[in-house]
Amino acid sequence: MSGEEAPEAPAQQQQTEQEKQPDEPPAAASDAPQEPASSPAEEEVFSCRALVLTGYGGYDKVKLQVKTRSKPQLQAGEVLVRVKACGLNFAELLARQGLYELLPSPPVTMGMEGSGVIEAVGEDVKNRKVGDRVIVLSRSGLWQDVVLVPADQTFVMPESMSFEEGAALPVNYLTAYMMLFEMANIRPGKSVLIHMAAGGVGVAATQLCQTVPDVTVFGTASAAKHETIVQGGVTHPIDYRTKDYVEEVRKISPMGVDVVLDPLGGSDTQKGYGLLKPMGTLIVFGAANCVTGQKKNLLAMAKTWYNQLSISTQKLMQANKAICGFHLGYISDDQLIVRTMATLLELYNQGKIKPRIDSSYHFEEVGDAMKRMHERLNIGKVILLPEPKKEEEKPKSSPEAEDKADKTEARVSEEKKEEGNTQEVKKKKKKEKQLYSITLPRNNVL
C-alpha cells in the first residue's frame, strides 16, 4: 500500500479520518451531483480500526488509526470478515525496522494472520457463508477490525477453536510443518534442535515433533521457560544465555542431531551446520540476530551477515549434509497452503496440536505487545485484539463501607447543623446584650 495515510496518532489514542485511504474503495468526489434517492445521511458507513506502520523505527511508528468510510463493495470471490484476533510475528518486528522486504513501504497496515466472522460474501462464493468462523491468511493488511479478502484465503475454524487460537495457528504452524515434513522429512528416531523453543514457531515445531514416534527434541530457551517447554515436549532444554548449546548437545548426543531449525542466522548458522550428523538437514528460516534494539542496528546486521555460513557444493557433497532455506512469504503454491492448513486443522481436531497463547493485547497496546516479543519474554503466541480496550472501572465500595460512609456523612451534617444552631443562639444573645448595653444608659438617664 502506498500514498497518503491518515494523520498519525499514538496507539493509545484514536483518530477518525474522513479522507480516502489507498486501500479503500474510491469515494465519490465531494463536488459530485447528489441523486435524489440517496443522501449522505442514508449512505451506509462504518468505522474501521487499523494498526498502520507510518515509518521505520521504534514501537511508536505503529499507530492506531480509526477511519470512517463507506461500506466496501465485494467483488466476485471475496468475503468481508469482522476480525476478532490477530497474530503478532517476529516478521512484524523486522518489518517495523525496514528489514522485511515483502511488506510495502509505509504507510501500510501490517498483519499476516487473523481470525473472525464472515459478515458478507461476494458472488460465486459457494463454500463460505455469513456467520462462518474463519482463519484468514495474507501477506499484510490484517491488523484491522474489518477486512475484505478472497474467500480462498480463509479457512473454516473447528467449533472448539477460540479466535485467539485461530489467529495463532497459520504462520507458525505452516512454517513448522513445512520445514519438518516437506524439507527435513522427519521420521521416527530422529533428533531435532529447535532454537527459540518457547516462541510461536518453537512451540509449533515441538508439538509437531510429538506426532512422530521417538523424536528427540533439543530446545534452547532461557532457564525460566524450561519447565514449560519440557511439559510441551522438549526432551532436553538448554539455557542459551548461560551455556554453550553446542557443547550441551554434544554431551548428550556426541554425533550431533539430524535436523536444525535456525531462525537466528550469522554465527549460529555455522554452529548449526557443525552440529549436523551425516545426512542431516539445516533449515534457515530467519535472521533474529539482526534485531537487537527497537530500531535498525547496522552493526548487528553487518556482524550477522559477515558471520553467515558460506559453503561450496563440493563441501556439502563431502560432508553428506543438506542446507535449506525457508520463507513462508515466498510460497506461491496456493494448493500447498490449502492442503497443509487442512492437515493442521485435522491435527487440532485430533488433539495433537494446540496453539499456546502467551498473552493478548488490544490494538491500543501494540507497543507493549511488540516489546514483550522483542525482549523474548513470551512463551507461545502474542495476540492482538481489534476490539477497543474498555476503560478500567473504579473499584466499587462494599455495602458496609458505603453504610459507614453514609453514617459518617450524616453525623458530619448533624454536627454542622448543631454548630449552626449554636452560632445562631450566640448571635441572638450577643444582639440582645448589645441592645441591653445600648438602652441601659438611656434608662439610667430617665
TrEMBL record:
A single GO cellular-component term on record: mitochondrial outer membrane
Biased composition (Basic and acidic residues): 387-420
Gene3D superfamilies found in the cross-reference section: Medium-chain alcohol dehydrogenases, catalytic domain, NAD(P)-binding Rossmann-like Domain
GO molecular function, one term: oxidoreductase activity
Keyword Cell cycle recorded: no
Any one biological process term the GO annotation gives: negative regulation of mitochondrial fusion
Keyword list, A-Z: Oxidoreductase
Ranges where the record places region Disordered: 1-43, 386-446
Start and end residues of each Enoyl reductase (ER) domain: 57-384
Compositionally biased residues, Polar residues: 436-446
Low complexity bias: start-end ranges: 26-40
InterPro entries named among the record's database cross-references: ADH-like_N, ER, GroES-like_sf, NAD(P)-bd_dom_sf, SV-ATPase_mito-regulator
Top-level taxon of the source organism: Eukaryota
Residue ranges of coiled coil: none
Listed name of the protein: Vesicle amine transport 1
Record lineage: Eukaryota, Metazoa, Chordata, Craniata, Vertebrata
